[in-house]
Amino acid sequence: MAVRLFSTLAVKKALDDVLLEAFERETGIEIDGVYDPTTQLLLRIENGERPDVMIAVTSSFEELRGSGVVDVGTRVPVARTGVGLAVPPDTDLPDVSTFEAFKKTLLDARSVAYSRTGASGIYFARLIQDLGIADEINARATVIDKGFIALAVVDGRADIAIQQLSELRFVPEARIAGPFPDDVQHYTEFSAALGVGSTDEAKAFVDFLTSDTARAAYEQTGLEMP
């Protein structure tokens, strides 16, 4: 029987491009994956769904402590990523090398796309509020419930997409302008944990997620080991 995986979108490219195939080839174990922002994965659990393995924002596991669904004691960090910007394929890359250039790029944009539920979008919404530019940005923003936000700059809905760097890479037609400047950068760490009552097959997969093969896959897809 396949291992039931709940995974944040941030590591999906590493899983799809390398890790799932490599794990199945090495062990013969199939992975049945569900991919959503962490907030949506938690909602799935609230609605009665049960994973064998969960990969999510590290801090979110505290909400599951004592839930009888995920064994938080098995949690291991697997990867982290920062937030970046992407633009349409035929657009010059904007300057985001300094805070002032970054802020100007946001304010000059026709529309900035970001996620309503993803970790990067939640952070960005708070950031522009702290910077005092939320009303101006949101008046013409493209706010997306979930998914790969760079699709919005490819299909013309926006000319700036904000998302974690690993997720921006999932839309190769978009051009990544770069990460946020250091003074406003935000790193999100992701961990994996076993579902309560999970099998040896599920444990083998969690172990595989911290292997050298996994490390290389993370680095290829805009992630890094924590």
Automatic annotation (TrEMBL):
Pfam families: SBP_bac_11 (PF13531). Gene3D superfamilies: Periplasmic binding protein-like II. Signal peptide: none annotated. It comes from the Bacteria. InterPro entries: ModA/WtpA. One of its GO terms (molecular function) is molybdate ion binding. GO terms for biological process: molybdate ion transport. This is Substrate-binding domain-containing protein.
